[in-house]
Design goal:
Blueprint lengths: L2 E7 L5 H6 L7 H9 L4 E8 L3 E8 L6 H9 L3 H4 L4 E4 H12 L11 H15 L5 H20 L5 H16 L9 E4 L3 H13 L7 E4 L3 H10 L3 E3 L4 H6 L3 E4 L21 E5 L16 E4 L1 H6 L6 H52 L5 H30 L5 H11 L14 E3 L5 E4 L15
Parallel strand pairs: 5-6, 5-8, 6-7, 8-9, 9-10
Antiparallel strand pairs: 1-3, 1-4, 2-3, 11-12
Helix pairs in contact: 5-7, 5-13, 6-7, 7-13, 8-9, 13-14, 13-15, 14-15
């Protein structure tokens, strides 16, 4: 298991950096193929969402120049990206992947969109033939971990409840009614899309009087179209807010997006501002403006909408449990070639002894010969059974690979070529048929020999 992961997310990089590394869905197959063509990479997966871009690779020798891949594919200087990049190897890469799918690394812990996003990234890798046996198992396990975290803990309610509780606050402030209100949604990422979908359900599935503003017009148009609204330009933010009843902001920006000056005089008309971003999008000073109700994630947290620390700890425990199981299984798989090589060595020794028997007792009854050969094989299998089972069990313990290494050293095994382990040399008759082992007159071999 030679995993390597590199990426940026909402915690490590501002939106401007994440945008430079964004990969449109239409270009993902091309990016994946270029990834596995990079030196030292056997399998690859790319996770690209509004809040993160991550490259996961199964490498040939444990290290690959993933920064070089970013530099070549995106035509950027990695020196500019270095302050924002994080990188994980081996078990840490797997742990990070499991935490991502469990939404423990999300902007809003508990949001469920990431499961679908990983499933899409995994499907894209399958389609592009960049996900092989190793990443297939890692991807399937990660999806299972995410499902467990959402179904077995309370974090599953978080993403939807944040929006639902926020909108309930808005309705309470607006005389209990959201129907017929005008909405401005700033940000068309996962939370913006969830807000739009929740609004539509609140409207009985009908069209919503909403405008979606986003840096990317394509994303804004997609979210707006899903609820029968319209897309707009961020430059028109102040003008759109002036006509709105509810402002919902959930971008991935690291600074203020909505200034207090963007909220113009409204002649006493109430405005509810729902700031669902972390860090906050809206200048908290808007709370001081007349007729403005400002609600951010801290308000929602105290309302019970956010995930509690106990729920996060429960999800983390699932990640830790699944990580131990996954790593143990990988260690057992790593030992398998050594066990195969050992059994191949034993089979060669048995074959050599049967040939020796044929050369010394050429007139031996075939039935007796078969029974003797079978007895020798049974004896060897019984001798090998305990150590091969035990080495697999020990492989699942910390440092377990050392036991397999001891076998390789003791028996001079090459797990990469179990069919080519050092064999006892044989005497070959003039017609090319092996008839006996090369042995001294007393029947003992003189030492290690090379197969014909």
């Amino acid at each position: 298991m030679n995993f390597q992961l590199i990426g940026v997310n909402h915690n490590s990089a501002p939106v401007e950096v994440r945008e430079r590394l964004a990969i449109p869905e239409s270009r993902l197959p091309e990016a994946l193929k270029q990834l596995v063509q990079h030196p030292g990479i056997d399998e690859g997966l790319i996770i690209c969402t509004c809040n993160r871009v991550e490259v996961l690779a199964q490498t040939r020798n444990g290290t690959a120049d993933l920064r070089g891949f970013l530099r070549e594919y995106f035509h950027v200087e990695t020196g500019d990206l270095s302050p924002h990049l994080y990188e994980f190897h081996e078990r840490d890469a797997v742990r990070h992947l499991f935490r991502v799918t469990s939404s423990l690394d999300s902007m809003v812990v508990g949001e469920s969109q990431i499961l679908g996003q990983l499933r899409g990234a995994y499907a894209a890798g399958i389609q592009a033939s960049t996900v092989g046996k190793v990443l297939h198992e890692a991807g399937q396990t990660a999806l299972r971990v995410g499902k467990r975290a959402h179904s077995e803990t309370g974090i599953d309610r978080a993403g939807a409840s944040v929006v639902a509780v926020a909108l309930q606050h808005a309705a309470d402030y607006l005389d209990g009614q959201l129907a017929g209100r005008r909405f401005v949604i700033v940000g068309a990422g996962s939370m913006g899309a969830l807000a739009a979908a929740t609004l539509q359900r609140a409207h009985g599935g009908g069209e919503v009087d909403a405008v979606v503003l986003n840096r990317s017009p394509e994303r804004a148009e997609r979210v707006a179209r899903s609820v029968g609204g319209r897309a707009g330009n961020l430059a028109a933010l102040a003008a759109e807010i002036a006509e709105a009843d509810v402002l919902i902001s959930s971008t991935g920006a690291t600074g203020v997006v909505v200034e207090a000056t963007d909220i113009q005089a409204r002649d006493g008309r109430p405005l509810v501002v729902l700031d669902l971003a972390l860090p906050r999008d809206v200048d908290p000073a808007v709370a001081l403006l007349p007729s403005v109700q400002y609600i951010d994630l801290e308000v929602l947290r105290t309302s019970g909408a956010m995930v509690s620390q106990d729920e996060i700890s429960a999800a983390d425990a699932i990640v830790a449990e699944e990580l131990r199981g996954y790593l143990s299984h990988q260690q057992v798989l790593a030992v398998a070639p050594t066990v195969t090589a050992l059994r191949a060595r034993a089979a060669q020794v048995v074959d050599a002894e049967v040939l020796r028997l044929d050369s010394r007792l050429p007139g031996l009854d075939p039935a007796v010969r078969a029974e003797l050969a079978s007895a020798v094989r049974r004896a060897v299998d019984k001798v090998l059974h305990a150590p091969t089972v035990r080495v697999k069990e020990l492989a699942a313990t910390p440092g377990g690979n050392s036991y397999a290494e001891a076998l390789r050293q003791l028996f001079d095994l090459d797990p990469a070529r179990p069919d080519a382990v050092t064999a006892v040399s044989r005497v070959v008759s003039p017609d090319g048929v092996p008839v006996a082992d090369a042995a001294s007159d007393d029947g003992r071999t003189d030492g290690p020999a090379v197969a014909e």
